[in-house]
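Milestone M4 deliverable, item 7.
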Amino acid sequence: MSVRSLAWSPDSSLLLSASDDKRLVLHDVRASPGGTVASFTGHSSWVLSADISPDGRLGLSGQVPSSSQCAFHINAADHRSADKSIKVWDIGARAAVSTIPDTGEVWSVSWRPKPAAPGTVGAFVSGGDDGTVRWWRGAGGGAA
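Output delivered:
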């Protein structure tokens, strides 16, 4: 398993890791050693990017479809998937709250650093293999 991305919570007490085993892992760095406190599953392929929202409530992750990994497998036909998605996670509830389909492979995700207005989830961006940076208005919103 390779760790592909790391993201700190705003207060630096939590660390979110994304890996090629299809998981995000939440670590409490105040605990010893490394203090794994939760594992988020739901992606069907490598998770290449992760971020934590400015208020620390939500996680964000992006993945590439399994077919992108085919060069690393002998029997590529067994590893195809059409899933190209971004997931938004409620860190407190330890659950996905939104899955957002994208048109291409999602290689990077990042929350907007400005905290969200009360009652909203904030905005984020994604980038991928098509060379496009997409601005997303919120966890369930479309691209701007």
